[in-house]
Amino acid sequence: MKRLLPLATLIVLTSAGSAHAQLFGGDTEARNQIIQLRQDLQGQLETTSRGQLELAMQNEQLRAEVARLRGQIELLMNEVETLKQRQRDFYVDLDTRLRQIETGGAAPRAAAAGDPAAESADYQAALNLLKDGKQTEALAAFETFVGRYPAGSFTAGAHFWAGNAALQARDVASATKHFNAVLQKWPDDDVAPDAMLGLANSQQALGDAAATRRTLQALTERYPQSNAAQVARQRLAAR
Questions:
Q1: Alpha-carbon distance 203 to 173, whole Å?
Q2: Does the pLDDT at position 97 exceed 50?
């Protein structure tokens, strides 16, 4: 029995040592797994951080590009407004000179025979309001004019410019009324083609694409040699 005791003790010690080795061996493996997990997590965090940084930089670049484009758009809009103003001024001055030639070279129409000078002065005053960008005041002045001189030498032009003033003031109903007045009463006047183009612009402002197209087409057929017809053809081709 005494000989068997050391053997039993050795077996127990060996078993305990094996269990101890397994315990510490498992602990080392767990630590390695934790270290690997930490490394993986750190890598993911770094990747995410880089992605966020790149996204932030892209957003900043987009904001800068949007700001640049907005600046260009504002610049172009200002240039367009300047060109529109110059064109309007030119047209007003040209219209004034043509009307003065008409009244100087031919007898005024019957309704204006009373005071041609007053008619010319009133017409010029309304044109000056439009030239100064006072669309609402110009519209009122032109409407007063056509009421005072319903068949005067400048009445067709007054209706045309009243339509333009109304359209710029976003009074589309008044614009349509005045442009139609030119086309119905003075279809052969020099401003008639532009009045028809103005009518198309009024219809477009109302969102009536079909009516706009019909008017533009009619313009090219009725006044084919006019500048307004050339504009109409370009707009029809672009649709």
A1: 10
A2: yes
Average pLDDT over residues 119-126: 93
Name the residue type at position 130: L
As a whole number of angstroms, the distance between CA 235 and CA 219 comes to: 12
* Side chain identity, residue 6: P
**Structure confidence by residue, pLDDT tens digits, 44-53:** 777 777 777 6
Backbone angles phi, psi at 139, to 5 degrees: -60, -45
Q: What span, in angstroms and rounded, lies between the C-alpha atoms of 5 and 19?
A: 21
Q: CATH second-level architecture of 71-189? A: Alpha Horseshoe (1.25)
Strand, coil or helix: 87: helix
Count CB neighbours of 125 within 10 A.
13
Please, where are the H alpha helices in the chain?
Answer: 4-105, 116-131, 135-148, 155-168, 172-185, 192-205, 209-222, 227-238
End-to-end CA distance of the chain: 113
**Domain parsing of the chain, residue ranges:** 71-189
